[in-house]
Protein: HNH endonuclease
Amino acid sequence: MGKEITAAQLATVYELGNLFSANKLPLNQVLETLVGSLNMNETSSTNYMRNFAALKAGKVYKRAMSALSYQVFLAKFYQDLSISDFEKVLHSITLHLQYRWSKSKVKHKEIRKLLAEYQSKLALLIPAPPFANEVTDEVIHKANFPEGAIKQVTVNAYERNSRARAACIAHYGACCQVCKTDFEKVYGNIGKGFIHVHHKIDLASIRESYQVNPIKDLIPVCPNCHAMLHTETPAMTVEKLKSLIKS
Ligand SMILES: [Zn+2]
Ligand SMILES: [Zn+2]
Structure:
């Protein structure tokens, strides 16, 4: 379904999909526009509407969509929806990818990558868990891995997690390597040792045999700088962020 459908057509599909899934526009009227005016195929248009309703409800859908569809829809959903509604959309896509994988071992790498990007954006918007300094990028970004590789890599990540973190902090100190914030200096005893550890390697490029280098691959950063690093995908470099800081 839909590889030939343009971004402009998808923008209309998005508008109509919102109305359709909110029961504000019946399918026949949607089809009048998509098939009648935009010359889209009727089956494809209908599938888009069914998928759209599932996406907004956080449910599984079965018909595949083009990577461009995900690009257009996710960008718009990200702008238009609340965090919890956007989470539903991401959950729905996750279910769809699991379904596609179980049916036909299709990986949909491009869509997975996009999904992982939005999952990490979302992770940064959600209030940090109490032990945020123990959450590594590897855990946050695990959705980048193809099915099957996920479990193995995260198990490895957990195993080496605290040691790699400790080695990184031992080398650099528990001090943001972008803005130099030292939580102990600011907050006293309660801030002692608090820091995020950012993983500099683009996780999409990592293989199962990858071994983290705590000094080359990890870097201590404060939560603010960490969030700013992840405003780009893959994350921007520490050097670039330093150059952006206004003095
Ligand atoms: Zn910082
Ligand atoms: Zn990071």
Notes: Residues 132-244 form one domain. The first strand starts at residue 196 and ends at 199.
